[in-house]
Each structure stands twice: as structure tokens, then as C-alpha cells.
Amino acid sequence: MELPDYHGGSVVNLVRSIERALGARPCAAAAAYPELNALPACALAGARNIVLLLIDGLGYDYLTGAGAGGALHARLRARITSVFPPTTATAVTSYLSGVGPQQHALTGWHVWLRELGCLAATLRFRPRYGGEALSRAGIVPRSLYTAEPMFDRLAAQSYVVSPADIIDSDYNVAHCGSALRRPYRELAGLFSTTAEILRSGGERKFVHAYTYELDAAAHTHGCTSAELQQKFRQLDAAYAHFLDDIAGTGTAVIACADHGFIDSPKASCIELDDHPQLARTLMLPLCGERRAAYCYVQPGQEAAFEHYVKTRLAHCTELYRSADLIAQGWFGLGPASPHLQERVGHYTLLMKDDYTIKDWILGEPCQLTLGVHGGVSAAEMQVPLIVAEA
Q: What is the pTM of this model?
């Protein structure tokens, strides 16, 4: 089991180092997190510009295995951890806000929003069953995405470079704050747009550049696939060219990730339809992730729920009270969001080995991805810290 190291070894601490290097104003919520041990603010203070290249899905295991020998691997500085759960919705929010899930309370892909009486897909800002975005119903995104964007605290001009299909999403707009948003359509555009920003004007700049191409390939084709390897090699070559292109700009280029991956074949998926006795103890659909599922149990059904999990699912899951995970610091340090407890349910099912758990609701397409994340294996939790100077 690998847990986040919020005391100086996680992605939240990396953002803390960047903030301090860029003269961020104080933030009470972020103050609980120290700088990253492997890259303190003083190591970045001399950089004219800072680029954070967030490579969705690039786990430490992958970089040091199939990804070894390339430009990214050559600049590997350290191994750090993601947050809990190590998944895009939760970890990317920490990158954009500079606080842990303890404060931002976006605890997985699917989150129960008590304020709306709605189970929502976090990044899409829409009900889990699909349909239109909640904003179309008049729900203001910032009323649910409550963490302050880290960009608003920086003493530098900030930019966010993201794929054109998500750059203006409700989630992105809410979390980018005062940063200037720049879209791109192809991988080459990610780096050419970032290079143009660095060469423009004379002010100090911070660029948050994001790509999800590896993540998409790993979900669809798996961690050992030729398709993923091809995407990685393209990214690695583009990264090397980018460093040459921006040479002399006085830029610190930090590459990192939100999570790693494991493969989980369909045979390793526990489907709730096959466990009707367990399903009857629940008052809501499963929330969170297939690798870390939050369970909301009917009043008076706690003993039956626990007994079923401990006797029928002991081979594939560990059972935790969600309140215990909060108390033990799995979600972060410092005061917790008032929404945190209600968004992690009564219990958490943490899946073992390559197992996942899944239920299906009306309107939801019944399809499973091969590559998964969100659990606490080293492959899912550990991400690379890659540092270059240009």
C-alpha cells in the first residue's frame, strides 16, 4: 500500500514550492502543506519563468520501465506521490488549487453533491447519467468548485495551455481563475503555444500546460500496449524539441503527473448487479472510483453491509470507514472542507490487486476501460518529478 506523502513528497507540495518561488500571497488553506523536499522554492527562485507540464497518466513505473532512455527519463529528479485517490478529478484539482482533497473536496470521478441532491461527474459538471451540464440549469460552477485557483495568488502572469475540447469547460474556467487560457489541438500545438508564451513580453510567467493523450491510450489499450508506447515516444520527442526551442529563456520546466496506471481485465471487475444482497444495503449508487469506491449505507444496514463485504468480498477489497481515512490524513493536512465527509460516504471499498468494483445506473453506457487508477498500489500512486532548465 502506498499513501500520499503530504508532508513534503506529494504533488500538493510541488505546487507549494512553485507558489513560493513565484511570490504567492499567503493562503490559509495551502499553508498546511510544506514545500516539496525534492524541489524546494529556493531551487526555482532564479528561474525567470516556470512551466509545469502536467502529463496525465504518466506513472513513475511507466517512465522508468517502458519509458526509460528518453528525454523525459534523462531529466528524472525524484519519485513523488499523487493524492488520494490518485485520479484525474482529484489530483488535477490539487494542481490547480494548491491544496489537497482535504480542502477542495473533489474526491473522485463521481461525487455525491448533497447541495443539489445529485450524483455528478466532477470534471464534466453534469449528472452521472449524462445530459446537459449543470450550468445549463443555472448552477454556478464556483458554487460547487470552492477552492481558490492557485493562479490568483501568484505574483506572475499565469497561463493555462489545454486541449481545445476542454479549455472552456465549466471545470476549467472555474479552476483557472485569472490565468489566461490558450487552447491547442495537436500535441505539437501544446509545445508551440507554450514556447510562444515564453517568448512574448518581458514579465515573469507561469505556464500550466496539460495533455491527456497518454491517459486516453492507457485507459483504452492498457499499460503495456503498443498504442501507449507510441503515444509516449511522440510526447518524449516533442518534449525534447521543446527544450531546444526555448533554450535561453531562463525557464524551469517541471514535468509531472496526476497518477499512474494498472491494467484490470473485465474478469477482475466486481459488478454490483451480481451482488443484489449488498446492493440492497446501499442508499446511493457507488461514488468515487472503480478502485476506491465510496459507499452510502442505508440506516440500520451497517452490520449487514460490513458482514457481506468481509465474508463475500474479502478476497478483493479492504473495507474502511471513510471518517477514519479523513482522520488518518489520507485526503490531506489541515482543516477539512465542510463538504468532505458527505462526499466520501460512510465506507470506502479499497480494491486489492487488479480488482475494481462497478455499478450501473440508468442512462450510463455499460463499458469498462482496461487501464485503471485510483487505488493505492505504487503503480497508481507514484509519479515522476522531471526537471529541466532552458
A: 0.96
